Amino acid sequence: MANYIVAISIFAVTFYFIISGKLDRTIASFAGALAMIGAGITLGFYSQEEAFHAIDFNMMGLLLGMMIIVSVCKKTGFFSYVAIKAAKASGGSPLRLMIMMGCITAFLSMALDNVTTIILVIPITILICDILGISPLPIIMSEIILSNIGGTGTMIGDPPNMMIASSANFSFTDFLVHLLPITLLAMVISLVALAFIFRKQMIHPSVDFSPISQINERAAIRDEKSLRKTVFSLIIVFALFILQKQLHLHHSFIALLGAGIVLILVRPNIEEIMKDIHWPILAFFASLFVLIGGLEKTGLLNLIAEQISRIANANYNLAKISILWVSACFASLVDRVPFTTAMIPIIKQVGVLGFNIDSLWWVLALGVGFGGSGTPIGSVVGVVGLAMSEKTSTPIDFKIWFKTATVVTVITLILVTLLIGII
Amino acid sequence: MKVKDIMTKDVIKISPSIGIREIYNIFREKNVGGVPVVDNDNKLLGLITKTELLDVLIPDYFGMVTDFLFIDDFGALEEKLESLPSLELFIAEDLMISGLISIKENASLMKAPVLMNKYNIRRLPVVDADNRLVGIVTRMDVCDALFNGKGRH
Fold first, then answer.
1. pLDDT tier, B85 (very low <50, low <70, confident <90, very high otherwise)
2. pLDDT digits (tens, 9 = 90+) for B34-53
3. Which of A29, A168, A411, B47 is the most exposed place for a label (fewest CB within 10 A)?
4. How close, in Å, is residue A131 to chain B by CA atoms?
5. Cβ of A333 under 8 Å from any chain B Cβ?
6. Closest by Cβ to B70, choosing from A122, A131, A216
7. Average pLDDT over residues A320-331
8. CB spacing of B59 vs A391 below 8 angstroms
9. What mean pLDDT, rounded, does chain B reach?
């Protein structure tokens, strides 16, 4: 009992500091992890070896590998190229611009990092809207929402998916089969909902499109050679991911191999690349794994797993729906990363208790992924997007967010709920 | 030699409430590249150069756009800038670089070029011990002192 109380107190205090922002989340989780190990050694529920093994190096390697590839990719001007191409294809219609920009953000978020995508796409979006003389707000909103939805669609789209992939031993193709179709459906429905919500801004008869149509998007590419090499490396990575099961390769090995290939081919300044890597995020993940590992060793998480199994025994779909909505609430109100980290040992334990947990993993991924757009603080993409919109003449505030993004999030979650039987 | 030996003592300075058009007129009429902003007590608050004047025209978010060299026609954005109704509302306080680097009048002459090159600045406001503006020293002032072997008198 003492173990429970100590472990949960350490967890609660750490969690408080992470979500209140009173302490940087990496520092808070690092301190929490150290406290958990200290308490574990003293009380005998958690050893240093166990703490070390709690860190999912496979997931962290996957994340690091993808970060390196993205870091090389973003210097080539590729993101601006794609954004201009999409803007040109819109023909100056605000509705088509919203659909095009939303979709490219979603697809880039599926293949690369969501936050990088948003940081590079939103400013060019604001510029394009200003050139056209239309409000960037609906388009920024669709980019934020579709970035979160798109990131849910693939194994490498978002860190929670990477964690789930590593823990459940799901391959890249498993995600394509189970999550991509529903993600694409959610994208379509979100765009329809956004078009309806912003229907007034979508009518804009007199737009002078010539400044956009004159832009030569190829000029946006700063380094074509590096871009070709990056795309080549990405193709290798995706090919290996697709053949992952046959080749018995770890997720991290494939991503790091891709990073290695891109570094050898492009030979960028390694110091600059390393500066681009979000080391605090990696440290945050490692600390969380250690922290949650301690909680798991006390047996506390098993109690939650038993509750879920009880619901699942009575009605399996009800268990899935509960996980979906609880995950979405945690993702939008608290922080999806610690939540996912805590859910992983719980779902594993439900599996030990004799349930087929495959669909629980998918529901968790959908809940934390789609739920990220529920509030402005639900995802890093939302926080960054909101801050960027403040520099425009029509900033997004919490009220606008709740009237648009929250509504769309609830719609996408209802969609998943309706389809829960086939997930 | 000290900074005060080479500085220009007769400085054109403005108060923080001066309007943008008046600032433009100062640049237009007097041959200066920057004007210090001081309060009633002559304490240094900031500095305005032509860069700050131009910055008014550039939307805030431009700093976040990684590259826009490939865009030649700014369309509606340009029309909006040309007819910027709020332009006249800007005052010195909104434009000035605050927290700027200044130099003490009793500092050694050597310190001026060190600061100028390290922070890539053209002119250094010179202040006394109480942060009151007493002069300004430019790159040319330092060059004059170096090449003519003596300060300006």
1. low
2. 899 999 999 999 999 998 98
3. A411
4. 5
5. no
6. A216
7. 94
8. yes
9. 88
Determine the pLDDT at residue B150.
56
Give the domain ranges of chain B: 3-148
Q: CATH for B3-148, among 3.90.1570.10, 3.10.580.10, 3.90.1150.10, 1.10.10.10?
A: 3.10.580.10
Per-domain residue ranges of chain A: 2-54+77-206+215-221+278-422
Q: Tell me the nearest-neighbour CA distance from A44 into chain B, angstroms.
A: 51
Task: Summarize pLDDT for B94-134 with one digit per residue, the tens.
Answer: 889 888 899 999 999 999 999 999 998 889 999 999 999 99
Token pair for A69? 């590839």
At A393 the pLDDT is: 85
CA distance B45 to B39: 7
Closest residue on chain B to A125 (Cα): B65
Pick B66's closest partner by Cβ from A120, A212, A219: A120
Residue B71: list chain A partners with CB under 8 A.
127, 131, 211, 215
Q: How confident is the model at residue A29 (pLDDT cuts 50, 70, 90)?
A: very high
ipTM of this predicted structure: 0.76
- Whether A224 has its CB under 8 Å from any CB of chain B: the answer is no
Contacts of A351 (CB under 8 A, 6+ apart): A357
The pLDDT of residue A92 is: 85
Looking at the complex, report in whole angstroms how far the Cα of residue A266 sits from the nearest Cα belonging to chain B: 20
Q: What is the mean pLDDT of residues A238-265?
A: 95
Following DSSP, what letter does each residue of chain B receive, concatenated? -BHHHHSB-S---B-TT-BHHHHHHHHHHS--SEEEEE-TT-BEEEEEEHHHHHHTTS-GGGGG-S--TT----HHHHHHHHT-GGGGG-BHHHHSEES---EETTSBTTHHHHHHHHHT-SEEEEE-TTSBEEEEEEHHHHHHHHHHSS---
Partners of B82 on chain A (C-beta within 8 Å) are: none
A208: distance to nearest CA of chain B, Å? 7
Q: Considering only CB atoms, which chain B residues are within 8 Å of A116? A: none
Q: Do A123 and B65 touch (CB under 8 A)?
A: yes
pLDDT at residue B57, as a whole number: 81
Residue that has been written with the tokens 């700027």 in this structure: B100
* Residue B109 structure tokens: 């002459």
Mark yes or no for CB contact A212/B75 under 8 Å: yes
For residues B113 and B142, the answer to whether their CB atoms sit within 8 Å is: yes
